[in-house]
Recover the amino acids of this structure.
């Protein structure tokens, strides 16, 4: 079973997601931005989702988590919850 350590920021608006992505690219602290802006319950943990199993997240995010390169900022990605910026910190287990 594949698992991954993931962190993300969830916002309702694409423009806000793009602005936060630019701040992150310019060196802003991911955890600090997540605490300030994310509407997910993970915000109080700096956006940390912790260890997630394949199939545990909404399909569009799950697919990204288990295919995107590690330690590379992804997004904004739209789901039914809003717009996600996410980073796979580490992946374990078989990927295919």
């Amino acid at each position: 079973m594949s698992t991954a350590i993931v962190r993300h920021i969830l916002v309702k608006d694409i423009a806000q997601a793009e602005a936060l992505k630019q701040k992150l690219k310019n060196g802003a602290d991911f955890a600090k931005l997540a605490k300030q802006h994310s509407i997910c319950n993970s915000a109080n943990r700096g956006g940390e989702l912790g260890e997630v199993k394949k199939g545990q997240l909404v399909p569009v995010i799950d697919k990204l988590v288990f295919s995107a390169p590690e330690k590379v900022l992804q997004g904004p990605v739209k789901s039914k919850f809003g717009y996600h910026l996410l980073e796979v910190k580490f992946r374990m287990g078989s990927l295919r």
